[in-house]
Amino acid sequence: MHPEPTSTPVRRAVSPLDHRVEAATGHGIDTLWAYRDRGVLDEPHAHMVDRHRELAKAQTGVVFYLKLLNRLSSGEFDVDDALLTRIDRTVNQLVEAADTRDAAARTVSAALEPIEAAATASAQGPSPLSTDDHAALLAIAGGAKLYEHLLTGRMSVTAASGTRIPHPELQRLEDAGLVARDTGHPLHAGQPVALTDTGRAALFAARRTPTTQAPKLPARPGTPSSTPTQRR
């Protein structure tokens, strides 16, 4: 009796372009996928991440059939016509999976090219967001509304996360073109506030710079301290 494919969930396979994607964006793959789901990414990055998910799925297929082929040829099973037929079929499935993976990789590469070009062009980019602006944009990305208090007339933004953003802060973000309000809704009911494409790009760029300082490793026993000792 020969093995059949199982429905056991497979962890996301590492695709051939993961390192290039991370280098172009400054983010890990899992972070990019999470940002896509939260609506933080602008259109080019969202398109690229969608294509990368297809690539990751295709890579999982390659890994599956490769492991199956390794098992079939491991010596665990009797060598007979049934096994040889199964090996031949698995090889064909592996070839098809590899072709699908390669086609998906080409679409990711094409989606990456303008992102890489933009990253190179903006290497000296604008001033980074302040801590407050960054926090406000991140909160708004998850959904937010501007309300006017019926009694006091004071206005403030309440994000879905519960974060409150002062109205002057919202006005600054609007003036900078980072957020926009849906004025078709009355203030007392809440006017939806959302990131613009410029806001998404600014928020993403603010989080793309990786930490370059390496952590200090503990000294091995017997290793002299790097701090010079003061002579008496």
Main sheet specs: 5 strands, antiparallel
Strand content: 5-15%
Proportion of residues in helical segments: 40-55%
Mean pLDDT: 80
Question: Any low-confidence stretches, pLDDT <50, length ≥5?
Answer: 1-10, 209-232
Q: Order of strands across the biggest sheet? A: 3-2-1-5-4
Number of helices: 7
Basic shape: elongated
Order of helices and strands: HHHHHEEEHEEH
From the alpha-carbon coordinates, what is the Rg to the nearest angstrom? 26 Å
SSE class: alpha+beta
Task: Describe the protein in words.
With 232 residues, the protein is α+β, with helices and mostly antiparallel strands. The protein has 7 helices and 5 strands. It has helices at residues 18-25, 29-38, 43-72, 81-121, 131-141, 167-175, 197-206, and strands spanning 144-148, 155-159, 164-166, 179-181, 191-195. Strands 3-2-1-5-4 form a 5-stranded antiparallel sheet. Strand 2 (155-159) and strand 3 form a beta hairpin. Helix 1 runs parallel beside helix 4 (81-121), helix 3 runs antiparallel to helix 4 and helix 5 crosses helix 7 (197-206). It is elongated, with a radius of gyration of 26 Å. The relative contact order is 0.12. The model is unreliable at 1-10 and 209-232 (pLDDT under 50).
Topology record:
Blueprint: H1 18-25, H2 29-38, H3 43-72, H4 81-121, H5 131-141, E1 144-148, E2 155-159, E3 164-166, H6 167-175, E4 179-181, E5 191-195, H7 197-206
Antiparallel strand pairs: 1-2, 1-5, 2-3, 4-5
Helix pairs in contact: 1-4, 3-4, 5-7
Brief descriptors of the model:
alpha+beta, 232 residues
